[in-house]
Design brief:
Layout lengths: L8 E3 L5 E4 L5 E3 L15 H24 L7 E11 L2 E11 L7 H13 L1 H6 L4 E6 L1
Parallel strand pairs: 5-6
Antiparallel strand pairs: 1-2, 2-3, 4-5
Length: 136
């Protein structure tokens, strides 16, 4: 891969801080209440969900241009779950893609599947994390 951009961030654990190298991100981290924390900060799952949703929506815009489809009213929500997986923990993701009426049915399904094949986050998770695509 020929890198066009590299992001860098430093964190010191799930109950610390996350800071990007350019200072645009400087966030307190905290375990969510569901995992025994106080929830007074963001967590890696929220950050991953935000990044994946944004990337998927942008990838959909690129794919839709090739397919000559209008996706200006599309909304993407990534739900990232963490749970026990054998001796450790694992992730699972549900990508909820809300499409306008003009993109329902087979056209919408093809668009979402083509986006999933194109999106860099989808490529990174493929074979590693279960990703369920839900079209709404």
């Amino acid at each position: 891969m020929d890198a066009l951009y590299t992001a860098a961030a430093t964190a010191n654990g799930r109950e610390g801080r996350a800071v990007s190298s350019d200072g645009q991100i400087d966030l307190p981290l905290a375990l969510p209440p569901a995992l025994g924390g106080n929830g007074k900060g963001t967590n890696p799952e929220q950050l991953f969900a935000a990044g994946y949703a944004a990337c998927f929506a942008s990838a959909m815009a690129a794919v839709s241009r090739e397919m000559k489809l209008d996706t200006k009213d599309v909304s993407v929500t990534a739900e990232v779950s963490i749970g026990k997986d054998g001796d450790g923990f694992g992730l699972a993701i549900v990508m909820r893609v809300e499409l306008p009426d003009s993109l329902t049915g087979e056209v919408g399904r093809q668009l979402v599947e083509a986006t999933h094949a194109y999106c860099p986050y989808s490529k990174a998770t493929r074979g590693n994390i279960d990703v369920e695509l839900v079209i709404e």
